[in-house]
Design brief:
11 helices, 25% helix, 5-stranded mixed sheet, 7-stranded mixed β-barrel, 4 domains, OB fold (Dihydrolipoamide Acetyltransferase, E2P), alpha+beta
Length: 464
């Protein structure tokens, strides 16, 4: 089993996956490690998600499963989510809605988005279309997976495209010789397919190019077998899934553990991955500080927040993750106070009338204000609800994975278990059954559930 690794977690994950076999390492990784890395086809790819909150692992199903097991063990709050629409999966889908630039396609357990530019012909509401997933999305993303009506046999350095009248469909910029090289490589490209060479092909030997092309050819033949003459009775339906995609979300505890792994390889500032996950513009600053040997003993929240935010007067989103992978925005609030030394911010939100506050059993009224205090790394946070006249209407203490106070949002995964303090002073725990259901469903580990229960017990004792 071999994997390639890219993104802000690359150094730590290369160390963590050393015995799996990391190939095609980037130049910085090769310089950082005191060992050689092979060049050749990778059975799976690990890449950082666009929001930097985790990684996607795509490729051979067995290799993906083995890799994900390693990653989930990184920390208590490393969550894994197998994708029902992995890269390369082919569906007979149903167009449920068309928009200005494309169509929403019902795939069964999920939906995808087919841009009109990626459709071979016009599609309209109610049409049945055969589509392939070319851009899978993590469950916490706001966008649907990207689809195409072209069929590809995805590979590492080589991908085959179905229905192209050419031996070579594309080569990387500046590498036209790959087109000529293709003609002398041993694997025979099946009829009706053309090869697209990726950027990784430019660094491969002739033998490695042949191996990459052979892997893509095997995938193409598998797709031909799966799709040839298939008669679909029930739409939507998944017709083929040669690869698997699993998403791993890293929380604060997992990112700290990844810091420790990276520290075995090179100088690593406390909060290295936390800072890079919070702001793409912070990456250069982190690298610069590490190059100077400026390595504080604790996470430098004061310096990070002063340079990148949040600051008093900012508006931040409360990004409330769920153990099943969904991300719910509880709204935006104003940062009314910040204690940089303590790593704490106070956020106020004006509430709208209607409904009740969960577990408090109190009606939400016009003029109510929610005051929440978030502290970096804490496994819980309190929200006090007050009426327009300042009357305390109740306190809600959320139990969650360690809080991360990013420049524009507060992030965590809600662990369902909460403690509420009613206006009359009564304190109680709620929603333990929902946490246990997550454990039974494999979404939350027993260790994480025990941690949440211990946090809730301590909060109840403190507030009683």
């Amino acid at each position: 089993m071999t994997v390639s690794v890219r993104g802000i977690y690359a150094t730590a994950l290369t160390e963590l996956l050393a015995d799996v076999g990391v190939v095609n390492a980037s130049e910085p990784i090769r310089e950082r490690f005191d060992r050689a890395f092979d060049a050749g086809p990778a059975a799976a790819h690990v890449s950082t998600t666009s929001d930097r909150q985790g990684v996607g692992v795509t490729g051979d199903p067995d290799t993906v499963a083995e890799t994900v097991e390693r990653l989930r063990d990184v920390g208590l709050d490393a969550f894994r989510y197998p994708d029902d629409a992995p890269r390369g999966a082919v569906f007979e889908g149903y167009v449920s809605e068309t928009r200005g630039g494309g169509a929403v396609v019902d795939l069964g357990d999920t939906e995808g988005y087919l841009s009109f530019d990626d459709a071979a012909e016009y599609v309209d509401d109610g049409d049945i279309v055969r589509v392939q997933v070319v851009g899978p999305k993590p469950p916490w993303a706001s966008r649907r997976p990207r689809l195409s009506t072209d069929i590809r046999a995805f590979g590492d350095a080589a991908t085959l495209v179905r229905g192209r009248d050419a031996l070579v469909a594309d080569t990387p910029s500046g590498a036209p010789e790959l087109a000529r090289t293709t003609e002398i490589l041993p694997p025979e490209i099946p009829d009706g397919w053309a090869v697209e060479w990726g950027d990784a092909a430019t660094d491969l030997s002739m033998d490695a190019l042949g191996d990459a092309l052979a892997a893509a050819v095997a995938s193409a033949k598998s797709l031909d077998d799966a799709l040839g003459g298939v008669d679909v009775d029930d739409v939507p339906a998944r017709l083929a899934a040669p690869d698997a995609t699993t998403w791993v979300w890293f929380g604060g505890d997992a990112r700290r553990s990844l810091d420790d792994v990276r520290r075995r390889v090179t100088d690593t500032i406390v909060g290295h991955h936390r800072i890079k996950a919070g702001s793409s513009s912070a990456s250069t600053a982190v690298d610069f500080a590490e190059s100077l040997g400026a390595l504080p003993d604790e996470f430098p929240f004061a310096a990070v927040s002063e340079q990148f935010g949040p600051a008093a007067g900012d508006r931040v989103r409360i990004e409330h993750g769920k153990p099943d992978g969904r991300l719910i925005t509880l709204g935006r609030g104003d940062v009314t106070d910040i204690d940089r030394d303590a790593g704490r911010i106070t956020v106020e939100r004006e509430m709208t009338a209607g409904g009740t506050y969960d577990a408090l059993g109190v009606e939400r009224q016009e003029g109510d204000v929610a005051v929440t205090r978030f502290q970096e790394g804490r496994w819980w946070y309190p929200t006090v609800y007050r009426g327009e006249d300042g009357t305390r209407r109740g306190t809600y203490i959320n139990v969650n994975t360690p809080l991360e106070l990013f420049p524009a949002d507060v992030r965590y995964v809600d662990l369902h278990l909460d403690v509420v303090k009613h206006a009359d002073g009564t304190v109680e725990q709620v929603d333990m059954d929902e946490l246990r259901a997550c454990v039974d469903d494999g979404l939350v580990t027993e260790d994480l559930a025990e941690k949440a229960a211990g946090v809730a017990d301590r909060i109840e004792d403190a507030f009683s």
